Amino acid sequence: MCPDCEDFARTVLLLGQLALYADVAGADLDFVDVVSPSLAVSLPEPPLGTFPDDSDPAEDS
Description:
With about 60 residues, the chain is mainly α. It has helices at about 5-20, 30-40. It is elongated and about 40 Å long. It starts with a helix and ends in a 20-residue tail after the last helix. The relative contact order is 0.17.
């Protein structure tokens, strides 16, 4: 796996695990509120081929 692909996959996995943790009874939601934006901002550019060539994330659907 390419280094960028691995970073992207790892960060997406961490975001998913954090979302699951947020739904657990007794979860520290302050932790979730602080960590989730930081993880989201740290996402590298998606690897080539992740989205169709004609997709534009800035365009409204």
